[in-house]
Write a structure and sequence with these properties.
heterodimer, A: mainly alpha, 3 helices, 79% helix, B: alpha+beta, Penicillin-binding protein 2a (Domain 2), Beta-lactamase, 4 domains, seven-stranded mixed β-sheet, 30 strands, disordered C terminus
C-alpha cells in the first residue's frame, strides 16, 4: 500500500504532461482542421446565398431593363409620335420648298 | 502460505486480463476492418451511385429558359422583343374550396369559370391558372389571398410597333415558339437553347448557388436585323390603309424595294393585325399576301414585253402597231381596249396601256421568247425570302394564240407582288435583276454574324440602254394623257405603270367582274432609288389602278424621297397663293402652343427669323439628347452617329457657320437603353 502511494507521488506533473502532449496536439490539430473546414463551409454557404441574391437582383434588373426598353420602343412608335406632332404640337410634313438638301460630309 | 496464495491469485487475473485485452483488441480490429471495408465499399465502389442519390436530394438543376432574340429594323429600331412577365399557377390540393376559388380567379382574370374549375379539379399539385398575365391581373389575384397560388416568370413576346410590319415579323405562341412570319422562319436562330444551372435548395426552398454563375450569353437567341425601314413601313401601311378604305377594297398590298440592292424597305398588307393580340385579328388578316398570294397582274406586265421586244430589236419607241380600232379578234375571242385607237407607237401603247398593242408586241416576240423573258425577270420561281408559304406564281407556256395575246398584257399567268416589284426593280437597275431580301443580318449574342445577306445580282435581263428606254417610256404614264396622272409628283420624275386585271373565277372557270387595281412606280426616274408597288384587291369605288392605287404610290414616294435625302428632279414649285399651309392656319397661336409644350421648339422659334452666321457650340462630353437640343437652339442641324455621349463633332466647336448647317456628332460610350 505504501509502495503504491509512493509510486503515484513519484510521477511528476511534467511527466504526465509530456506523456499526454502528443495526444493533446493530435486532438488540437483535428479540432483546428475541423474548425477551418466548418468555417470554410459556412463561408461557402454564405457566399452561395449572397451569390444567389445577387443573381436574383441581376435577373430582376435585367427584366426591368427589358421592360424599359420595350416601353421606350412603344413610346417611340411612329403612330404615337405622329399623333403627338399633329395634335399637340400642331406640326405637319414640310412643304417641298422648305426642304433643303445638304451635301454629305 | 499467504505469500504463495498471494502470488497465485496475482498471476491468474493478469493472464485473464491479457486474454480479455487480446479478445477485445481482436474484436475492435475486426470491427475496424469491417468499418474500413464498408467505407471502402461506400466511398469507392458505390461512389457514383450514392453521390447521385445524395445530390438528387439537395442539388437542383435550375432551368434557365433562353431569351428569345430581338428583331430590329434596318436602323436598329426594335420590332419584336421578349420581356419576362408573370404566369399564375395553383396547387389545387391547398385550395379550401376549388369551386369558390375558380369563381374568384375567373372573375379576376376574365376566364371561363367552368373551364378553369375543370382544370383545377383534374390537377393534383399543379395547374396553370393563366399564363403571361398583366401586372394589374397579378395585383387582382394577389388581393384574393388564396392559398396555393404561385407566380412564375415566363418570357413573353412583345411587338412595340404594334401592327407595323406584323405580317413580315409574324408572331409566337404562348410557349414562345414562332407560329408565322420570320418568327417561324428563323425559329432556330431566334429561340436559342435553354440552359441549366446547378444550385442547392435549402429547407425553405431558397436558391443557393455554390458553383458560381456561368455566363449564359451564348445560349440566348440571335438578333435578327431586317432590311425594313420602320418609317417607310409606317408610311406604306398608312397610305395602303387610306387607299383600301377609300376604294372600299377588302385587301391590299404595298411593296417598297431598293432597286439597286434588292432590299425590301417596306412590305405592307391590309387587313392589318396586332401581333400582341392575334386572337382579335379578323379572318385572313394574318396572311402575308405580298409573299404568299399569286395573282394575275394585268397591264403592269406590258413593260416587260416591251423591254423584251426592245432587247430582241423587234421594235423601238416609234414602231407603230395597228390597234384594230379597239377590238381585235383572235379565233373566237376578242381582245378589247378601253379606249379605241387606230394605231399607236410603242411609247404610246405603254402610256395608254393598250391591250391590243401589247398583244401584238407579244406576238412579234413569239411564245418561247415571251416565256423566256418572263422567267429571266424572275417570274415562275420563288424569290426565296424565307417566309413561310411563299408563292412562286405560274407562267404557263402559251400554246394557244389567245394565251400568247393575254399573257402579253399580264392575264393568264400569275405572280406575287414581290416578284412584280423585283421585275420593275430590274428595269430600274439598268436591266440587272437583284435578289430581293428581307433579312440583312443575324448576329448571335457573342457578336458572331450567323447570316450576312448582301445585295446579290441574279442575272442581267436586258441591256442597260433598253432598261433606260423602258423607264423613259414609262414616265409618260404619269403625265397628262397617261393612265396614272395621279401618281405624278411635282418635284420628282416618276416612271410607272398601271394594272387593272380581271380576277379569275375558279367556279365558273372564267373571269369574274372583279378586278385587281395596281400601280408600280419607279422614283426618281433619272436615278431610281425606290420601286413602289401598290395592289388593291377588288376595289369597289373604281377599278382602275391609276385611280385607286396611284395616289397611294404618290403618298409613299412623297414621304420617302426627302426621308432618303433624294434631291428633287425638278426645282420645287413655289406654293400656290391661297393654298392652305401645311402647319395650322394660325401661326402665332400654333407657335405659342408649341413653345409652351416644348422648350426646344421655343428655342428654334426664337432664332428662326434672323439670318446670318452662328457659332458651333462645344458639345463634347454631352449626352446625345442635350447636344441635339443645343444645336437646334442655335438653328443648326444635328446628325448623330453612334450612341452615348458626344466624343467628337464636325465642324469644330467655335466655328462660324451658316444657320441650318449640318453638325455631325460622333457619339460613344455605353447606350443605356438598347444594347444588342
Amino acid at each position: 500500500m505504501s509502495v503504491a502511494i509512493e509510486g503515484r507521488r513519484g510521477v511528476s506533473f511534467g511527466v504526465i504532461f509530456f506523456e499526454l502532449l502528443p495526444a493533446a496536439l493530435l486532438v488540437l490539430m483535428f479540432a483546428t482542421v475541423g474548425i477551418v473546414h466548418v468555417t470554410g463551409r459556412v463561408l461557402v454557404v454564405k457566399v452561395g446565398y449572397e451569390l444567389s441574391r445577387l443573381d436574383q437582383t441581376g435577373a430582376e434588373l435585367m427584366r426591368e431593363h427589358d421592360r424599359l426598353k420595350l416601353e421606350l420602343a412603344t413610346l417611340r412608335s411612329p403612330s404615337r409620335l405622329e399623333s403627338i406632332a399633329r395634335q399637340k404640337l400642331l406640326m405637319g410634313p414640310p412643304a417641298p420648298s422648305a426642304i433643303f438638301h445638304v451635301k454629305e460630309g | 502460505m499467504r505469500d504463495l496464495k498471494h502470488t497465485v491469485s496475482a498471476e491468474a487475473p493478469d493472464k485473464w486480463m491479457r486474454l480479455r485485452v487480446f479478445v477485445m483488441g481482436a474484436v475492435f480490429i475486426v470491427l475496424l476492418v469491417a468499418v474500413v471495408a464498408r467505407a471502402f465499399q461506400l466511398q469507392v465502389h458505390q461512389q457514383a451511385k450514392l453521390k447521385g442519390m445524395a445530390q438528387d436530394q439537395y442539388v437542383r438543376q435550375i432551368e434557365i429558359p433562353a431569351r428569345r432574340g430581338d428583331i430590329f429594323d434596318r436602323r436598329g429600331v426594335p420590332l419584336a422583343q421578349s420581356v419576362d412577365v408573370d404566369s399564375i399557377w395553383v396547387d389545387p390540393s391547398l385550395l379550401p374550396d376549388e369551386k369558390l376559388a375558380a369563381r374568384a380567379l375567373a372573375r379576376a382574370l376574365d376566364l371561363d369559370q367552368p373551364e378553369l374549375f375543370a382544370r383545377l379539379a383534374k390537377a393534383r399539385r399543379f395547374a396553370w391558372v393563366k399564363r403571361q398575365v398583366t401586372p394589374s391581373e397579378v395585383a387582382r389575384v394577389t388581393a384574393l389571398a388564396l392559398p396555393g397560388i404561385g407566380f412564375t416568370k415566363e418570357p413573353r413576346r412583345f411587338y412595340p410597333q404594334r401592327e407595323l410590319g406584323a405580317h413580315v415579323i409574324g408572331l409566337v405562341g404562348t410557349d414562345g415558339h414562332g407560329l408565322d412570319g420570320l418568327e417561324l422562319a428563323f425559329e432556330a436562330e431566334l429561340s436559342g437553347d435553354a440552359s441549366t444551372r446547378r444550385g442547392f435548395r435549402d429547407a425553405r426552398g431558397r436558391k443557393l448557388l455554390t458553383h458560381g454563375i456561368e455566363d449564359l450569353a451564348g445560349r440566348q437567341g440571335a438578333a435578327v436585323t431586317l432590311t425594313l425601314d420602320r418609317h417607310l413601313q409606317y408610311v406604306a401601311e398608312k397610305a395602303l390603309t387610306r387607299a383600301v378604305e377609300e376604294a372600299k377594297a377588302p385587301a391590299g398590298t404595298v411593296v417598297v424595294l431598293d432597286p439597286k440592292s434588292g432590299e425590301i424597305l417596306a412590305l405592307a398588307n391590309y387587313p392589318r393585325f396586332n401581333p400582341n393580340s392575334p386572337a382579335a385579328a379578323q379572318k385572313n388578316a394574318l396572311r402575308n399576301r405580298a409573299a404568299t398570294d399569286a395573282f394575275e397582274p394585268g397591264s403592269t406586265f406590258k413593260a416587260f414585253v416591251v423591254a423584251a421586244a426592245l432587247e430582241e430589236k423587234l421594235v423601238n419607241e416609234s414602231t407603230s402597231f395597228d390597234l384594230e380600232k379597239g377590238a381585235w379578234k383572235i379565233g373566237k375571242h376578242v381582245i378589247n381596249d378601253d379606249h379605241p385607237h387606230e394605231a399607236l407607237d410603242v411609247h404610246r401603247i405603254l402610256q395608254v396601256s393598250s391591250n391590243i398593242g401589247a398583244a401584238k408586241i407579244g406576238a412579234a416576240l413569239g411564245r418561247e421568247r415571251l416565256v423566256d423573258y418572263y422567267a429571266k425577270f424572275g417570274f415562275g420561281e420563288r424569290v426565296g425570302l424565307g417566309l413561310p408559304g411563299e408563292g412562286r406564281g405560274v407562267v404557263p407556256f402559251p400554246r394557244a394564240e389567245i394565251s400568247l395575246a393575254t399573257q402579253s398584257f399580264g392575264q393568264g399567268l400569275t405572280a406575287t407582288a414581290i416578284q412584280l416589284a423585283a421585275g420593275y426593280a430590274a428595269l430600274a437597275n439598268g436591266g440587272v435583276l437583284m435578289k430581293p431580301y428581307l433579312v440583312s443580318k443575324v448576329v448571335d449574342p457573342d457578336g458572331v454574324t450567323l447570316i450576312d445577306n448582301q445585295p446579290t445580282e441574279v442575272r442581267r435581263v436586258v441591256s442597260a440602254a433598253n432598261a433606260r428606254r423602258v423607264i423613259a417610256m414609262l414616265e409618260s404614264v404619269v403625265e397628262k394623257g397617261g393612265t396614272a396622272p395621279r401618281a405624278r409628283m411635282d418635284e420628282y420624275r416618276v416612271a410607272g405603270k398601271t394594272g387593272t386585271a380581271q380576277k379569275a373565277d375558279p367556279v365558273a372557270r372564267g373571269y369574274s367582274d372583279k378586278r385587281i387595281g395596281s400601280f408600280v412606280g419607279v422614283v426618281p426616274a433619272e436615278n431610281p432609288r425606290l420601286v413602289v408597288l401598290v395592289v388593291l384587291d377588288e376595289p369597289k369605288t373604281d377599278v382602275y389602278g391609276g385611280i385607286v392605287a396611284a395616289p397611294a404610290f404618290k403618298e409613299i414616294a412623297t414621304a420617302a424621297m426627302p426621308y432618303l435625302s433624294v434631291k428633287p428632279s425638278r426645282p420645287p414649285t413655289p406654293e400656290k397663293p391661297g393654298k392652305a399651309p401645311v402647319v395650322a392656319p394660325e401661326p402665332a397661336r400654333v407657335a405659342a402652343k408649341a413653345s409652351a409644350l416644348n422648350p426646344v421648339v421655343a428655342a428654334i422659334e426664337e432664332l428662326d427669323a434672323p439670318a446670318g452666321a452662328v457659332r458651333v457650340p462645344n458639345l463634347t462630353g454631352r449626352a446625345g439628347r442635350d447636344a441635339v437640343a443645343q444645336l437646334l437652339a442655335v438653328a443648326l442641324e444635328p446628325r448623330l452617329a453612334g450612341s452615348g455621349r458626344v466624343s467628337s463633332q464636325q465642324p469644330a466647336a467655335g466655328s462660324l457657320v451658316e444657320r441650318g448647317t449640318r453638325v455631325t456628332l460622333e457619339l460613344a460610350g455605353p447606350l443605356p437603353t438598347s444594347p444588342r
